[in-house]
Structure formats: structure tokens, C-alpha cells
Amino acid sequence: MTQISGIQSRCLTVTLQLILAAALHQSFATVAPPVTAPPHKEPSRPERGNYNVSSSNGTVCLLASMGLQLNITFNSASLNKTVQEVVNLQPNLTKSSGSCGPDIASLRLTTDGEKTNLTLFFSLNTTSSKYHLSEVSLSAILPDVKEPFSANNGSLDYLRGTLGYSYMCREEQTLDVAQGLSINTFQLQVQPFGLAGEQFGAAEECQLDEDDMLIPIIVGAALAGLVLIVLLAYLIGRKRSHAGYQTI
Q1: Is it the case that residue 245 has pLDDT exceeding 70?
Q2: CATH class for domain 49-209?
């Protein structure tokens, strides 16, 4: 009887070991290691390029210095869904051309072997002597689309400046052009009218730059005010402590 009990005990132990091994095997088999998604790669900052347009007599009539980044949204043919492509214009691979008129000037940037053509149109109000970016047109042959991408908007009002002055914006700014297209500008300075020679006129800075300069001034003024309050509190406290020791 004791021998039978020993055999039953050993069978029970073996059975428990098998059940435990099976459970552990099932646990390791079903719990997969966590999948880490590849980190999102931020687009690099575009290089600043210098572009110009000359009139028919050879004099420079438009100057531009800026870094440009195109944000293009299109339907991917291979993925069968909408995707966004970020394209930096490379100055060493970009050709500039255009035209200058009394109240309309254009800058055409062609890159990637004529695959990408970006044209900026500037309008001048001769009454107020103010100019602005009034139209943007883009055509681009992308590697994953059935037809060339194109976008145009002729009712824009960006980069406002005064005749004879250049428009400057050091901060990054986004120009919403049309559905599927926006442009990020970096370290931008442009003058489409009223050039005197081949140099920019005095710069009129954008609101973003003015706000960026205003923040340190406000912080400095607040710190100066705080120091003044502390100093006054110290002087008042010191005066009261001396008054308490006066002889009656």
C-alpha cells in the first residue's frame, strides 16, 4: 500500500511539473516582446539660399534670401492613402528666374531637374506704396503619384512691406497656400520693388521677430521691478528696526 502511495505521489509530482512547464511555455509563446515604433524623424532645417531676378537691362530688380520647406499632402499610389511629404529646397540645386514690372514681380525657383517649379508673385499698391506676396504656384513631379502635383492661390496676403524697404523675418513662419500645400520660411529677407543697386534696403521686421525681441525686455523689466520691491522692503524694514531702539 505504501509502495502504491509513493507511485501515486511521484505521478502527481510529474503531472504537476508537466502542467507547470506547459503553462510557462504557453506564457512565453503568447506574450510577445513589445514592439518599439521607429522614432519620428523631424525634417531638417533647410539651407538658406540667395536668389535674384534681373530686368531686361541687366539690373537686379528683386532680391530674396531664405530657406524654404514645402509641405505637400497628396494621395500615395503605392500606399493608397493620403501622405505628407516635406521637401527642402536646396540652394545649390535651385535655379532662379522671374520678371519685374511696375506693380507685379515674380520669382521662379526651379529644382530637381525641372521636376519642382515654385513661383512667388508680389504685388505693389502704387497708391499706398505697400507690397505683399499675392500669389504662389507650385508644380512638382513626386515619385509616388500618378499625376504631377499642382497647387495655386492668387489671393494671398503675406510678407507685407513698404516700397524701398525689404521685408525680414528671422523666425520660422508658415504660409498656408492651398489645400495640400503650405510653405515654411526660415531666415527670410525679400525685396521685390524699389531696389537701389544690388543690396537690400533697410529691413522692416515681421511681428514674430518683434515679439521675440519683446519677451526678453518684459522679463528684464519684471526682474528689475522685483529687485526694486525687495530693496524697498529691506529699507523700510531697516528703518522700522532702528526706530524701535530710539530713546523716549
Answers
A1: no
A2: mainly beta
